[in-house]
Fold this sequence. Notes:
Blueprint: H1 2-26, E1 37-43, H2 47-55, H3 57-60, E2 67-70, E3 78-81, E4 98-102, E5 106-111, H4 118-121, E6 125-133, E7 139-146, H5 154-180, E8 184-185, E9 190-191, E10 197-205, H6 216-234, E11 238-243, E12 265-271, H7 274-282, H8 285-288, E13 292-298
Helix pairs in contact: 5-6
Amino acid sequence: xxxxEMRPLMRLLPLVLTxxxxxxxxxxSGDAPARVIELDRIIxxxxxxxxxxxxxxxxxTSFFSPRAKVELRMGGAYELHFAxxxxxxxxxxxxxxxxxxxxxxxxxxxxxxxxxxxxARWRRTFVVLRFDDAxxxxxxxxxxxxxxxxxxxxxxxxxxxxxxxxxxxxVDHLDRRFSDGPFMRAGSGEFExxxxxxxVYFIHPAREGMIETMTDEERSIINEHAAYVRSLLASGVLxxxxxxxxxxxxxxxxxxxxxxxxxxGIVVFTAPNEAAAREIMENDPAVRAGVFKxxxxxxxxxxxxx
Length: 306
């Protein structure tokens, strides 16, 4: 009898926990507002399928990470291994846990910074996913990433900038998973589906002398660019990226900007087609803001050394 009476209360418990998390995220003492990452997207798949994509090993490894340990219970593991062969402790969201869930409606879990930010990695933030029916069998997916503290230092700021970019890529991959089918083979990290092709985009400052006379706004945008490139790496899209060390490089070719400017950077990555590759290039914050000029080319990796 008591168990029967308690069931409605037990169903409310995850909602109460989520409310407390969200309240802590959106209300802080003092004048500084809480930092939070929020994303609201429509996914062209039924809610039950989108729910499975985030709450089962088979679902997660079809679009998010090549290996995972997902235990759908309060306190259960929510560990996504983005680099399964890396040393222990640097593979992904090791040690993260399910905080609460309501079947088919809401999932919350702890999250950590990437391994290249060790000072921020030991702290835990939290992620709340909310799933709602949308028109024509689609799903409204809302992502809230909270638990940030503006006073935690430079690596904490970098982690915030990183995830501000990377969640968009996660949802892009989810869209692709439902439009083109799973593109990882569950548990193996191997690609499955339309074979990706390598592309490269060249970037260089849009104005002469920018490196020597960079404004605070340009510097901020370039930091966003760096976070964006790191998000490509985390999502498995990036092959390599970095600047040329030639101190004075003159662009050539029909579409080149006729300025003698500091050496260009290159971003080599994979995409299923040219349209998707162009979208990746144009979503680079520095390209979008006009701080960098960019040129896209298809790329052939003829020789790769280890």
